[in-house]
């Protein structure tokens, strides 16, 4: 069966005064209809640039796609004409931007911006398009939608603006939505509401969702699969529960260990990554993680150093200058995406990869 979105060895570079910056260096991932792929990584890892290249909105110059394929329902978006891609954007695939205030037109009422989608892509009259816009605002739970359709973006709170962005993306019921940090700068309660809304709409319309974020807590309950990016590359992919329970790359483990824990230093975890009940014991990997994670009253773990510049990526594994497991091979040989076998991970694992020479040791939780 053809995947909804299949990104194959995508490469993007930026030509700058200081040289050529390789922002995306061979990214491959995919998502099926009705499923959610979460793309994790620190700022600057290439998550948003990858999304912009998929959508065809990359600023060029200075950015340009130098290789790879982006297949949407089997058709390569990169070989389409600009006119063909415009027909697909909005109607078949849409994007939710992280800064709704900048993404929305400040001099047009939000209702007019939503109605424009129906007028341009569906040929509706102004009256019918406005009616559909109000229905859509009500669908994303904006109170008094009929009255607020005439308001401007600056008259809405951050959470309400993000709902309008979601409404705009959902207007034409696309098959795929790419959500780029949709909960940035929102408080925790509003974050949960926005993520619940996205999950509900995904189920209702059976669409594919690519969720870009650096917040591990945001994706735990909504993602099916996670792809972890570092220095413009995928370093690990796994089903969400497998990745949270037993990461197979030291960078992923560092991200997980950096999350504050409130369940106490003696808390145990079962095979689902949940607090273990009476009679359950923690494994060797759980003990190793516990020793490094920031529990209540303890010191919060942080990955040492900083992400590398795309203008001067390290030789070998890009993560080796910050990696506690780094060995000589890591400095001279870039690891491919190894397939993590089910036997080494868990009986239910499938489709797992790790770009680490020592992924087996990482799964075992051994300290090197």
TrEMBL record:
One Pfam family matching this protein: ABC_tran
Annotated ranges, domain ABC transporter: 5-256
Superkingdom classification of source: Bacteria
Family in the record: Belongs to the ABC transporter superfamily.
Gene Ontology MF annotations: ATP binding
SUPFAM superfamilies xref list: P-loop containing nucleoside triphosphate hydrolases (SSF52540)
Name of the protein in its database record: Peptide/nickel transport system ATP-binding protein/oligopeptide transport system ATP-binding protein
Record's subcellular location: Cell membrane
Protein source organism: Streptomyces demainii
This protein's record includes keyword Membrane: yes
Stretches for region Disordered: 254-305
Topology relative to the membrane: Peripheral membrane protein
Basic and acidic residues composition bias: residue spans: 266-288
Composition bias type Basic residues, residue spans: 289-298
UniProt keywords, alphabetically: ATP-binding, Cell membrane, Membrane, Nucleotide-binding, Transport
């Amino acid at each position: 069966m053809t995947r909804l979105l299949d990104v194959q060895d995508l490469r993007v570079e930026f030509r700058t005064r200081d040289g050529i910056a390789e922002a995306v260096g061979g990214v491959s991932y995919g998502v099926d209809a009705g499923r959610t792929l979460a793309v994790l990584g620190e700022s600057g890892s290439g998550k948003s640039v990858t999304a912009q290249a998929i959508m065809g909105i990359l600023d060029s110059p200075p950015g340009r796609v130098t290789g790879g394929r982006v297949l949407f329902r089997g058709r390569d978006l990169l070989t389409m004409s600009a006119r063909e891609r415009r027909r697909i954007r909005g109607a078949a695939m849409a994007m939710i931007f992280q800064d709704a205030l900048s993404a929305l037109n400040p001099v047009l009422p939000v209702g007019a911006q939503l109605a424009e989608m129906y007028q341009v892509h569906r040929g509706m009259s102004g009256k019918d398009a406005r009616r559909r816009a109000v229905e859509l605002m009500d669908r994303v739970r904006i109170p008094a939608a009929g009255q607020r359709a005439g308001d401007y973006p600056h008259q809405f709170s951050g959470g309400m603006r993000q709902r309008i962005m979601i409404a705009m993306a959902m207007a034409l019921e696309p098959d795929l939505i790419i959500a780029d940090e949709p909960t940035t700068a929102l408080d925790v309660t509003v974050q949960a509401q926005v993520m619940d809304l996205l999950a509900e709409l995904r189920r209702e319309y059976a669409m594919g969702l690519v969720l870009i974020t650096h917040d591990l807590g945001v994706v735990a309950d909504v993602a099916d699969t996670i792809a972890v990016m570092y220095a413009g590359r995928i370093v690990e992919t796994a089903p969400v529960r497998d990745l949270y329970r037993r990461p197979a790359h030291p960078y992923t483990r560092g991200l997980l260990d950096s999350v504050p824990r409130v369940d106490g230093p003696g808390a145990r975890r079962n095979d689902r990554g949940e607090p273990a009940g009476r009679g359950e014991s923690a494994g060797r990997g759980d003990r190793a993680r516990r020793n490094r994670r920031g529990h209540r009253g303890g010191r919060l773990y942080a990955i040492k150093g900083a992400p590398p510049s795309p203008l001067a990526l390290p030789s070998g594994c890009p993560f080796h200058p910050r990696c506690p497991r780094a060995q000589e091979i890591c400095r001279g040989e870039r690891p491919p995406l190894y397939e993590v076998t089910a036997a080494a991970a868990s009986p239910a694992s499938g489709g797992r990869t790790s770009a680490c020479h020592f992924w087996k040791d990482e799964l075992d939780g051994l300290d090197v």
